[in-house]
Amino acid sequence: MYATTDTPVTTPATQGGRSRWLALYVLCAGMLMIVLDVTIVNVALPAIQDDLGFSSSSLAWVVNAYLIAFGGLLLLAGRLGDLLGRRTIFVSGLIVFTVASVLCGLASSATLLIAARFLQGVGGALTSAVILGMIVTLFPEPREQAKAIGVFAFVASAGGSIGLLAGGVLTQAISWHWIFFVNLPIGVVTALLAVRVIEKDKGIGFGRGTDVPGAVLITSALMVGVFTIVKPAAELGWTAPRSIALSMLTLTLLACFVVREATAANPLVPLRIFRSRTLTGANLIQALSSAGMFGIFFLGSLYLQRVLGYDALEIGLAFLPTTLVMGLLSVKYSEKLVMRFGPRRPLIGGLVLIVIGLALFTQAPVNGNYFIHVMPVLFLLGLGGGVCFPALMGLSMADVKPEDAGLASGLIGTMGEVGAALGLAILATLSATRTETLTTAGKPVLEALTSGFHLSFAVAGLLVATAVLIACTLMRPTRTAAETEAEAELVLDAA
């Protein structure tokens, strides 16, 4: 089997069958609120700019402030869940996120909104970092675990496209303030239900002391790294002196963190967790696939807006095929595929479908037709994501000890967030540079824009293709449920 959760743990794993599924739905509700916020804000940015007087350069900080806090704290939040109890960290994150959402909605200036968005990122990291770890301890039986992870993977991966639709509806029907106010009732109800239906876990405690230096080093490294990706690297390029200096600072902080964890008596992140080839491979695949998929959702939206002339609501509706297909596969069929073929083959097959979809997107013309040039691509992306992401989530928690489940959960989230930010920065820069070059050479604006998007789609395909190679080489073939049952029958017959 692909998940190792046989060891008894002081977690909600002891809950009854029905209450465990209720707990899963509460966890997914919290995750959906966090994931929606990543994309729902993008649709409302023009309205926010007009209302609060953001400059074109400072507007990006509405997104960047959230990403820096969220990406920087995920790994630390996951480990705190192991130490202090995952339900405690989950509920604390919901409270912080909900309060920050209200502050965002009430913000009367650009500065206040950016500060509240940073606080939102803190709450988002605390909430989402521990969810996958809680799921694998709630569902130790492989078949149920595969089904539960399928539901979670759908929420985590398809929620972004739902955010595009919700953002368009709320912004156009009411105002941009309500993309934040809507989190208040959801956050309050989810937190109350979490306390009621999720059993409190104890956590392993801080043992011989708190690894404060390790916490400071890894949080600083991730925050500086994410800042470098979303600000100087995206705006000035990776060869700019400021980008190089911050990149070197990030690498230095990471190196110091590794040294600290190798010598600390009670490390925040035990380095033994990286001995697993499966875990290492899963995190590399997560970074590469997130880089390709997140960048395409963003740049694909720009193609629909700037080239085909779609408005915010039409863009949200355009991405519905991805959401629907991904949801159907993740919730209804992913568990069956994983149990029948093991997680490795669905992972590889799903990634290949995504590569094919991205390759097709490079052929979308200036006067493209949605049903011919866009919808088939989004269908393939949803099909591939619905097949591969649940398998990837399961593999990321394989070979992980119960006391490290929060850390592994935070790690896969961190790799996804950093990969998405890095991918978006690279793909957006390549697209903009290509467009500018062609425009300078006298090409029509729409042709130049389309060519820039084609380049970014092709590079995104190469990133996901690299993930396919890693899946084929690093991920060991796993025993399927059918093979395990057949062996058990042979043993019984022999006896």
UniProtKB/TrEMBL annotation:
The keyword Cell cycle does not apply. Its main location: membrane. InterPro entries: EmrB-like (IPR004638), MFS (IPR011701), MFS_dom (IPR020846), MFS_trans_sf (IPR036259). The chain crosses the membrane at residues 21-47, 59-77, 89-115, 121-139, 151-170, 176-198, 210-230, 242-260, 281-303, 315-334, 346-364, 370-395, 407-432, 452-474. It is found in: Cell membrane. Residues 23-479 form the Major facilitator superfamily (MFS) profile domain. It is a multi-pass membrane protein. Keywords: Cell membrane, Membrane, Transmembrane, Transmembrane helix, Transport. The keyword Membrane applies. NCBIfam families: efflux_EmrB. This is DHA2 family efflux MFS transporter permease subunit. It comes from Kribbella ginsengisoli.
